[in-house]
Amino acid sequence: MTKFAILLGGDLHLTERLETQLAGARVIAADAGMRHAAPLGLEAELWVGDFDSAELALQAAAGHVPQRRFSTDKDATDGELAVCAALERGAQEVILAGGLGGQSDHAFAHLMLALGLARRDIASFVTSGYEEGWPLWPGEHRLDAPAGSRLSILALSDLEGLSIAGVRWPLVERDVPLGSTLTLSNEVSGPVRIALAAGSGIAMLTPP
């Protein structure tokens, strides 16, 4: 499976778990996301964006990386353009690294990007290293979640027939209306299995 890491401009902290997740990934940086490459020991194969947030010092330090520049007057974020570049290169799995923190609108958009990719059978999740967002849509999902992690399900629509196993407070075929806080702040106790009959959402995971 061809795995790509998209380096985004939000928060990103190197942890053992993140290092494992990024192992073997090809790397594309989106604008200021390039600043994460050196601390993570990664080498980007492409740098995408309008470069409005990449400082001159960063541009000089990473000037050897091939670039795909866009006008600031464009119809997609730098992150989405980087994802498109990964798909052009055959990505079957996309990690949106640095996709949380920073601007709330961009963080939300990154979660929606991951959901859109997953619904096209492209495995994807968003991470800051400390926190992860995993897309949910109708079907069964297994979540790689260490025991003791905090798990919240954020409903993006009314959820029908939601079941959660492997947590302190399991659910069985529960309907969760949009806006409910029922599924916030659960605790992982074992292998997490999530099933959803209808609707879409995000599983927010905070490993211990």
Which key features would you list for this structure?
208 residues, alpha/beta, Rossmann fold, Jelly Rolls, 13-stranded mixed beta sheet, 5 helices
What characterizes the major β-sheet? Answer: 13 strands, mixed
Are there runs of 5+ residues with pLDDT below 50, and where? none
Q: State the end-to-end CA separation.
A: 28 Å
- Specify the CATH architecture of the largest domain: 3-Layer(aba) Sandwich
Q: Which band does the percent of strand residues land in? A: 35-45%
Name the helicity range. 10-25%
Name of the CATH class of the largest domain: Alpha Beta
Give the domain tally: 2
The rough form would be described as elongated
Task: Report mean pLDDT, rounded to a whole number.
Answer: 95
Please give the radius of gyration in angstroms. Answer: 17 Å
Number of strands: 13
Q: What's the number of helices?
A: 5
- Please identify the structural class as seen in this structure: alpha/beta
Q: If you consult CATH, what is the topology of the largest domain? A: Rossmann fold
CATH superfamily of the largest domain: Thiamin pyrophosphokinase, catalytic domain
What are the secondary-structure elements, in order, as H or E? Answer: EHEHEHEHEHEEEEEEEE
